Hints:
The complex is a heterodimer.
Chain A: H1 11-20, E1 23-26, E2 31-37, H2 42-50, E3 63-69, E4 75-85, E5 88-93, H3 98-108, E6 114-118, E7 123-129, H4 133-139, E8 153-158, E9 161-167, E10 176-182, H5 185-199, E11 205-206, H6 209-218, H7 253-259, E12 266-272, E13 283-285, E14 291-301, E15 306-313, E16 323-328, E17 331-338
Parallel strand pairs in A: 1-11
Antiparallel strand pairs in A: 1-7, 2-5, 2-6, 3-4, 4-5, 7-10, 8-9, 9-10, 12-15, 12-17, 13-14, 13-16, 14-15, 16-17
Helix pairs in contact in A: 1-6
Chain B: E1 8-9, E2 14-19, E3 22-27, H1 29-35, E4 38-42, E5 49-50, E6 55-61, E7 65-69, E8 74-79, H2 82-85, H3 89-92, E9 101-105, H4 109-112, H5 117-126
Antiparallel strand pairs in B: 1-2, 2-3, 3-9, 4-6, 5-8, 6-7, 8-9
Amino acid sequence: MPIEYPRTGGLVAEHKAVRGGVGIFDVSHMGDVRVRGRGLGAGLAAVEHITMNNAARLAAGQAQYSAMLYPEGTFVDDLIVHRLGEDDFLLVINAGTREKDVAWIQENTKGFDCEVADWSDAYTQLAIQGPRAADVIRKLGYAAVADLSTYWFAYATICGRSDILIARTGYTGEDGFEIYVPSDIETSEDVWRRVLEAGREFGILPCGLGARNTLRLEARLPLYGHEISQDINVWEAGLGRFCKMEKGEFVGRAALERMKSALTRTLAGLEMVDRGIARDGYRCQDEAGNVIGHVTSGSPSPTLGKNIALAYLPPEFAALGTVVCVQIRGQKLKARVVPTPFYRRPRGQEPGGGKGHSSAPR
Amino acid sequence: MTYPAALRYTKDHEWIGVNGELGTVGLTDHAQSQLGDVVFVELPKSGAKLEAGKPLGTVESVKAVFEIYAPASGEVTEVNDDLANAPEKINQDPYGAGWLVKLRLSNRAEITGLMDAEAYESYLAGQGASC
């Protein structure tokens, strides 16, 4: 995926296409790991051991946002867990951490009677995102798409190819789908082309990494290496609602239990007050000039027309309305703590009978 | 793509138009197309002293920040204030309404060291840029 596709308008145009119509992302770089038990629920047990959300409550056909943690309660990676069957799971992981993740999964499921297979190269993953995404999917052959709820998946005939895994998931804060097609060049190119054709009447644009970043930032979705990393724990990142401590033992649980009441920093949303753009890595300061934190991600927001950022700040600076300073090329510029997500898709666009979570990550 | 013959160009894709002792500075069409939509420009104030080859400010697209380098030395006499509210002029009209600053040149000889339109086009072609 390039940063943007200049010939069809570039980053801002792509971002707006997703918010107002539909966009397509080639996200094949992401990883796919299949965990299948060889008997007696070993697959489920393995997944429960290495992830923090509760996979046991997933029905076959359902997915959930989750994370794998180090024993210290910090992030190996975030991921989506898909329950393919009673004891059969597909974990979709980030591209940048793929090799590390696969090794981690293999190492930490050794004690379980299950098979771990890296299926990443077998699939081309495409994300079709936006309020008109469902219309595009319907045109491509999945007539019953309206019955697929957010964070559920199915197998459908798409672009003339049967048994294509299609999940109602995404990383933009809009309704959308991720489809997994066989990765041979001919199939991948044909499907890409057909999606663009089907989406033309809705203004579809191919979207790159730049728009992917501005979209997920507006929706407060974390990016590994920025909001989550091996130095950041679940509570700091504000992802506690995906961490089911009550489910029982999992890697990182004990550390999280200890750290729950000892938060020294928390992820806050910022909106620039002074003219300037806070960017990744910039320092945050109090009025006196003491460094209090740093920006994890920052950029102009094409939807809001403001400059926004996420930053780690001490809890006492993270109350809504607090003014902090951001060091931008030698100048101390003011920013204000604001609620997140910065953007929520409008009500009345909930798919599948309203079971969806409009602010679910990814 | 032809570049205005009256202007001179730098390797960092700035242009300067000279009229007696005064120069007007901007970014070339190649620069603005590489940048994408400009969302923010930081420029010096009137009276600021510029040194050829040193940064005079920054230009930002959504994705990144880039420095703007002074094509020549001198003192800033005028700054394009329109760009504060309409930075997109740099994309839309890079040689006209998208001008950045005007300066009183302190060393006119520096201009002869810059590329003319033909040399700049060759330079771009050598970089693999399509006009």
